[in-house]
Amino acid sequence: ATVAAARERAQGERRVAITPETCRKFVAAGAKVVIERGAGNGAAVTDEAYEQAGATLLDDAGAVYAAADVLLCVQAPEAGSIACLREGAALVGLLAPQADPARAQAIQARGIVAFPLERLPRTTRAQAMDVLSSQAGMAGYKAVLIAAQLAPRFFPMLTTAAGTIRPSKVLVVGAGVAGLQAIATAKRLGAQVEGFDVRPETREQIESLGGRFLDLGVSAAGEGGYARQLTDEERAEQQRRLAEHLKGIDVVVCTAAVPGRPAPKIVTSAMVAGMRPGSVIVDLAAETGGNCELTRPGETVEAGGVAVSGPLNLASSGAVHASEMYARNLYNFALLFLADGRLVDGRIGFDWDDELLAKTVWPERNGDGTAAG
Ligand code: NAD
């Protein structure tokens, strides 16, 4: 089978879905690897590095798509590129198929076997393929560095000849994968760190990183280990306690999310107005609308001396390591159907009894692998 990756076209996207490391592994597994020239530039991978890893490099993106039995990507290609894929080819990446009707249509029209990895079940077996986790780790790390950069204060406590500087107080809202990495990073920079989440099990996780769990009196564990949406009463209670607490906080890093829904609005304009000038909010949830009411995606705004930053695609800003992890995730996922490099009638053989394939594929399929509906 031929596994391929083209240069990412989405604006600001620097990551790449195949690295020389995974290229070598694919070749060792019996696959042929095709890469568009320049595909690794944003992630500091040269064409020569791919060549040395056994890849064939092509100048033309269309030729890369046409050669692929399995096209690996970070963000979904445009509908026009999908139309260049072979009938029945597999497409794996953060595809967000429903975000663009033309793309969804192209996937279906071409009979593409699409695996949007945001649909991957988050089971123990899937951990090594979990791109949401690996990329969230980089995002949480970078969010804290942005906050430190914007803050007019030190993070650590300093004892100097000019007297003592007290450490910054950092609050991390939402302690999932990104939030926990943010807590760990802020802690390493020497800040006093607190975190809160509506899933009660996060208390222990926050504490194990040296953070303090901020108890806002709301517990809302939902399905599949995720949070559920809060009721109006729960939200009001959370907000009342949070508003008071934020008056003493220097830096807020927001990471709260509820699957399939816009980001919960947690930090209101009134709360920001109550914060001290010189405080900083970095809102990782900007992509899905923001946890802070003042967040503007892709911008940093100022309100009453408080900087509110809504960075987008932070994983891409750490493209080297983000790609390293992402590419390994994709390699592990592709092994579910490439283990023996087999092609059946020119198509890859998918085992639709494998829950990871069956639950990730889009559109959903019947048990025998035929399109549902
Ligand atoms: P996410 O990005 O969907 O959400 C981030 C965090 O926001 C979550 O911890 C969530 O509880 C929290 N949140 C939602 N609403 C909130 C509110 N109103 N106030 C405060 N916090 C709020 O989550 P994620 O980082 O992708 O991970 C979510 C869960 O999935 C975690 O339990 C994680 O351990 C689990 N997980 C399991 C696996 C696995 O076993 N394979 C892999 C990754 C993650």
Automatic annotation (TrEMBL):
Catalytic activity, as annotated: NAD(+) + NADPH + H(+)(in) = NADH + NADP(+) + H(+)(out)
Name this protein carries in UniProt: proton-translocating NAD(P)(+) transhydrogenase
Residue stretches in coiled coil: none
Annotated InterPro entries: Ala_DH/PNT_CS2 (IPR008143), AlaDH/PNT_N (IPR007886), AlaDH/PNT_NAD(H)-bd (IPR007698), NAD(P)-bd_dom_sf (IPR036291)
GO terms classed as biological process: NADPH regeneration
Function in brief: The transhydrogenation between NADH and NADP is coupled to respiration and ATP hydrolysis and functions as a proton pump across the membrane.
Residues in Alanine dehydrogenase/pyridine nucleotide transhydrogenase N-terminal domain copies: 4-139
Pfam family, one: AlaDh_PNT_C
EC number: 7.1.1.1
Organism: Marilutibacter maris
A cellular component annotation (GO) from this entry: plasma membrane
Keywords linked to the UniProt accession: NAD, NADP, Nucleotide-binding, Translocase
Family designation: Belongs to the AlaDH/PNT family.
UniProt-listed CDD domains: Rubrum_tdh
Alanine dehydrogenase/pyridine nucleotide transhydrogenase NAD(H)-binding domain sequence ranges: 148-310
GO function term, MF aspect, one: NADP binding
